[in-house]
Amino acid sequence: MPRPERHTQVYDAVGANLVIAVCTMIAAGVTGSSAMLSEGVHSIADTGSELLLLLGLKRSRRPADSIPIDLYDFFVVWVRRLSTFEGLEDP
Q1: Dist. CA 33–CA 24, nearest whole Å
Q2: CA 44, 46, 48, 51 torsion: positive or negative?
Q3: In this structure, are residues 74 and 68 in contact, taking their beta carbons and an 8 Å threshold?
């Protein structure tokens, strides 16, 4: 029997990263440390990434689009895959 979908781990990670971001930003303000500021910005970026993950989980419940992918989109997807694989910059 499949387990019900819960995203508590993602919510926990968002909360933890927000706490870490606030603490590191406070520490950066008190100490003037650029490394702490960098870590605070990194934690904010991680929180944004997790919020995008939650958005993707929500949108994945929608039914699939009936519009097929066209040739241009197919080409762009493959160029991005190859450039990522080859270590080149994204077009």
Answers
A1: 10
A2: negative
A3: no
CA-CA distance, 57 to 75, in Å (whole number)?
26
Render each residue's pLDDT in the chain as its tens digit; 91 residues. Answer: 455 567 888 899 999 999 999 999 999 999 999 999 999 999 999 999 899 899 888 888 888 777 666 777 777 777 777 776 655 555 4
- State the Cα–Cα distance between residues 80 and 53, nearest whole angstrom: 21
**Amino acid in position 45:** A
CA 57 to chain centre: 12
> For residue 88, how many C-alpha atoms fall within 13 Å in the half-sphere facing its CB?
8
